[in-house]
Specification:
Elements lengths: L1 E3 L24 E5 L4 E9 L4 E8 L12 E7 L6 E6 L5 E9 L5 E11 L2 E13 L4 E2 L3 E2 L10 E10 L2 E9 L6 E8 L5 E6 L7 E8 L5 E7 L7 E5 L7 E4 L8 E4 L5 E9 L2 E9 L5 E7 L5 E9 L2 E8 L6 E8 H4 L4
Parallel strand pairs: 9-12
Antiparallel strand pairs: 1-2, 2-26, 3-4, 4-5, 5-6, 7-8, 8-9, 9-10, 9-11, 12-13, 13-14, 14-15, 16-17, 17-18, 18-19, 20-21, 21-22, 22-23, 24-25, 25-26
């Protein structure tokens, strides 16, 4: 096992799971996987007393030959310290990437992942794919593409991350609008995780919206965070109540990359994301303030090609998975933080 520490003083310790972070900016992280040249794009789930971390493995970020096509690796850990391979998902001729993991209402593990077709590093097509874990076979099913109504399907539709609420799966899907080519984000829902229908169009005014994540508060209100490639504006935060057709939207004031969102038991809205400063990029945890602006809470050892975090709250701790290229090669990292140390009770 390898560990990344922020200060030389921490190198004196052989193992640290959490450290007091009041007054600190950087939280230690554990390097949990580096068995492929390019490991990236994580998600994290706590299910039946174990952590599941999924990510893409490949030779490179963008394929230029079939051998470079991504596979989806899933790791499992009972304690967040020792990690073991759990599953490997691949589809011949298809670059699988940006996996997300969830649990269906009938208690099955489900993977959502992009399925892209590249020819000599040029993207020629792509559809989101789904796979379900089969206990008897001890493996995930062969990935199959999601199904969309003809009126919204374009052939290049990316359902980024699925969140189950009650008996429905909800996700933010980005695409180029028919007729205009403008990048838009749609809220879609499904009963089975495969067949999706339109719920509403997200009223995003920033340019080039894309990757987005969903969470629900205790009252069933939906809260979303969306990356926008707009040099003059930040990412998008939105709120809606059932049936999720009317929206309030805000510019969060910061540029995002691969953002994830979490509503904590005490009502805080946290966002883990790629962040940017004068020195470059890094992975950070932020909190949405009362003015709907993101404020940095802490950051993790990272740099360059990085972020795409998974985010879990469990038993008074926050757990974060992410990838980074700040050490040799792109690797997968895991950090845990005592919630009360992050947000002390007044």
């Amino acid at each position: 096992m390898k560990y990344t520490w922020t200060w030389a003083l921490l190198a004196l310790f052989t193992f640290i799971t959490t450290v007091p972070i009041i007054g600190q900016k950087i939280v230690p992280a554990q390097r949990i996987w580096d068995k492929a040249p390019h490991c990236a794009f994580t998600d994290l789930l706590y299910y039946k007393n174990a952590f599941y971390c999924c990510f893409r493995e490949s030779n490179r970020h963008v394929p230029n030959r079939w051998a470079d096509n991504g596979k989806i690796r899933v790791l499992k850990s009972k304690d967040g310290k020792e990690w073991q391979p759990f599953a490997l998902v691949e589809l011949p001729g298809v670059d699988l990437r940006d996996p997300k993991i969830s649990v269906t209402p009938d208690n099955k593990l489900m993977l959502t992942m992009g399925g892209s077709i590249y020819i000599m590093d040029k993207l020629k097509g792509g559809r989101t794919h789904i796979a379900f874990y089969n206990k008897e076979q001890n493996a995930f099913s062969k990935p199959v593409p999601i199904e969309l109504p003809a009126e919204i399907a374009t052939g290049m539709d990316w359902l980024w991350k699925v969140t189950w609420h009650k008996k429905d799966a909800y996700g933010l899907m980005y695409q180029a609008e028919k007729g205009t080519g403008k990048r838009i984000v749609l809220l879609v829902s499904s009963k089975d995780g495969i067949h999706y229908n339109l719920v509403s169009r997200i009223p995003i005014t920033q340019n080039f919206p894309n990757e987005g994540a969903i969470q629900f508060d205790k009252k069933g209100n939906m809260k979303i965070i969306v990356r926008c490639e707009d040099n003059k504006a930040g990412g998008f935060y939105g709120e809606s109540s059932y049936p999720y057709t009317e929206w309030k939207g805000y510019d969060v004031g910061k540029r995002l990359g691969g953002p994830n969102i979490l509503i904590t038991p005490d009502g805080r809205t946290l966002v883990a994301t790629r962040a940017f400063d004068s020195k470059g990029t890094y992975t950070a945890l932020m909190e949405l303030d009362s003015n709907y602006k993101l404020q940095e809470v802490c950051r993790f050892p990272s740099g360059g090609d990085c972020s795409y975090p998974g985010l879990v709250y469990q038993n008074g701790k926050l757990y974060i998975s992410y990838y980074s290229g700040h050490e040799k090669g792109n690797a997968i990292y895991f950090a845990q933080i005592d919630y009360d140390q992050l947000f002390p009770n007044p």
